[in-house]
Amino acid sequence: MQNSTPHKTALGHIRVLDLTRVLAGPWCSQNLADLGADVIKVERPLNGDDTRSWGPPYLRDSEGKDTSEAAYYLCANRGKRAITVDLSKPQGQEIIRKLAMQSDVVIENYKVGQLKKYNLDYESLKQMKPDLVYCAITGFGQDGPYAHRAGYDFIIQGMGGLMSLTGERDDLAGGGPQKAGVAITDLMTGMYATIAILAALTHRDKTGEGQFIDMALLDVQVAMLANMGSNYLTSGSTPKRWGNAHPNIVPYQSFATSDSHIIVAAGNDTQYRKFVEIGGEPTLADDPRFISNPLRVQHRDVLVPLLKDMVKRRSKKEWITALEAAGVPCGPINDLAEVFQDPQVQARGMQIQMPHPTAGKLALVANPMKLSKTPVRYEQAPPILSQHTEQCLRELLQFDDEKIAMLKSQGII
């Protein structure tokens, strides 16, 4: 439905009406925007997406003053056109209904049944547009005993088992469940929703038939358990937390160096021998308690403290240089300054600069999808609140100056 773009994009023919906020939904719609879709982000007048105020830090304008755009909001809203509409008012609902008729996809993350009272749910909209792809993202899905509960990433990480697997062993200092450092369930829900939408669009293109997509954070978290979920279903044994260690390989964990931390993943006896020889402790390779991986696993509580003392004698850089030269799998634990200074990250173009209407320019993390024929595009910085309201209403709904002025005066847009 979108007008042709200056260069070829995978989704340049698709328009998305984005009624989501916070992270899971916006992450999905940003993916679609990066791939060329025309994404129209609908927000509440005055306040907008909750994440606009989730700071500090905030984006600074050209004079160095904080704007109203939190860094959290900026991470998930590039490539979109932003409009403000009050869905609680009938005229606002009619605007959304008309925009949906001009769109291929609607994405929303309202509570179950909340949009039905506005006749903006899938069943209502598909009566007018049978080929519409409609994706609803909730915490627990459209059915089941928890369907009407609000879902938050942190809670879902706990309920869905991830935190039972993440964190140091209970018998060690600092042991206990830990959440992931980023909202990984929200992000993966956004990714699964992206895939589902693309599948539904392919089905629509073949059959002319739209469909409803029911995405739930809890479902995604359970699916993300991957091999750990399979391990439990196969064995009946509940996996436990191992922190940064491995249940079946020693040494396969992080270690503190003299100045930072490294990861050593010695997957066989030869790599283990090289590791301790580089560390100046060759006798640890010949000790009968440690000569094979099964024995090292059996005696990990004796061996690991000895390895920790050994690793602390050198710096992160010294260890990485020596281990890489010897072919021992290893890596640094980088902070974010080190991540964005890493030559491989730079070579892969994982930081981008975009022009911004108030900041002048804006640094963002790039999309990792690298397509040879239809590359991702970076044509629109995360929009300021209501930046494109008039443009979209004029272009898509043919509203004139008088109509727009009336809607503004009534607080509908």
If helices are DSSP runs of H or I spanning 4 or more residues, what is the number of helices? 18
Major pleated sheet: 6 strands, parallel
Low-confidence stretches: 1-6
Instruction: Give the tally of β-strands.
Output: 13
CATH superfamily of the largest domain: Crotonobetainyl-coa:carnitine coa-transferase, domain 1
Integer-rounded radius of gyration: 26 Å
Might you state the CATH topology name of the largest domain? Rossmann fold
> Which CATH class of the largest domain is shown?
Alpha Beta
Helix content: 25-40%
Order of strands, widest sheet:
5-2-1-6-7-8
Q: What is the end-to-end distance?
A: 23 Å
Report the principal-axis shape: elongated
**Strand content range:** 15-25%
Number of domains: 2
